[in-house]
Amino acid sequence: MGKEIFSMKDIILKISNDFSFSYGTNKLFSSKKNISFEKGKIYGIYGSNGTGKTSFLNILNTFTVPTTGIIEYNFKNILYSFDNKDNNKTTKIISNNIRRCFQIPMLVDELSIIDNIVLGKREYRNERFIDSILYTKGNNYKDIKNLLEQLNINPNNTASVLSYGQRRIIANLQILYTSPDLILLDEPFVGLHSDVIQFFKDEYLKKATLGTTIILVEHLAQNLKNFADEYLIIKNKELKLVNNYVGLS
């Protein structure tokens, strides 16, 4: 593990053609050929319930190791390969280049809404929350407050008062406040009004324009139309990358 084998400068990660993931003897998915994700593109992951969409994100996030095969990462400050022999070193090495929006928003109810957003800026997983807040205070708070006001959310309220939809909004803003190489989104638009969804799509498109790769799981194909550049379909336990929305069937 840990071999620096990347060579394609416009590819941010690549999955080998022997890649697979299984729960015990139950194979969830596999690839039959190399799959590459380019820098600055948006990829939608689409599949029916139970096909392993979140499990796939967990592997990309290095929370779970693949059963077979290799994922090669090409981040701005490191080249790295990740396989089933990894012993958690990958998480420490590359995790600062990845940001994730989970299905269940990870907020601290006792903190203000604006401080919850700032927490996403932490550079290291063991960084103290208070250090993140103190470092950022007064720098970009004005921009965040303006965004929250556009979304009719009081930045000074604690997160405990937020509805589910508002918690989803804050979870997305946590991600948008960072500048990673790779953004992973797990159904980021659930419970949001169409106008708010479009707002976030526009903001994520700006991130992609700056070179960040975005990979999102979405259970509604319509939310991927005119947004994702390419689509990774999980069907019949196989991963297949297509560039046509018509392929989502």
What can you see in these coordinates?
The protein is α/β, with parallel strands linked by helices and 249 residues long. The chain has one domain (11-107, 162-247): P-loop containing nucleotide triphosphate hydrolases (Rossmann fold, 3-Layer(aba) Sandwich), CATH 3.40.50.300. Helices cover 27% and strands 23% of the residues. It has helices at 53-60, 89-94, 113-119, 129-136, 141-150, 164-176, 194-209; strands at residues 11-15, 20-23, 26-30, 35-38, 42-46, 71-75, 78-82, 98-101, 182-186, 213-217, 230-235, 238-242. The strands form 3 sheets. Strands 8-9-10-5-11-12 form a 6-stranded mixed β-sheet, with helices on both faces. A 4-stranded antiparallel β-sheet has the order 4-1-6-7. The protein has a two-stranded antiparallel sheet with strand order 2-3. A hairpin with a 2-residue loop joins strand 6 and strand 7 (78-82). It is globular.
Number of helices: 7
Strand order of the largest sheet: 8-9-10-5-11-12
The average pLDDT value, as a whole number, equals 85
The largest sheet is:
6 strands, mixed
Find the count of extended strands (DSSP E, 2+ residues): 12
CATH topology: Rossmann fold
Strand content: 15-25%
Poorly predicted runs: 1-7
CATH class: Alpha Beta
CATH architecture: 3-Layer(aba) Sandwich
The assigned structural class equals alpha/beta
Question: What topology does this entry show?
Answer:
Layout: E1 11-15, E2 20-23, E3 26-30, E4 35-38, E5 42-46, H1 53-60, E6 71-75, E7 78-82, H2 89-94, E8 98-101, H3 113-119, H4 129-136, H5 141-150, H6 164-176, E9 182-186, H7 194-209, E10 213-217, E11 230-235, E12 238-242
Parallel strand pairs: 5-10, 5-11, 8-9, 9-10
Antiparallel strand pairs: 1-4, 1-6, 2-3, 6-7, 11-12
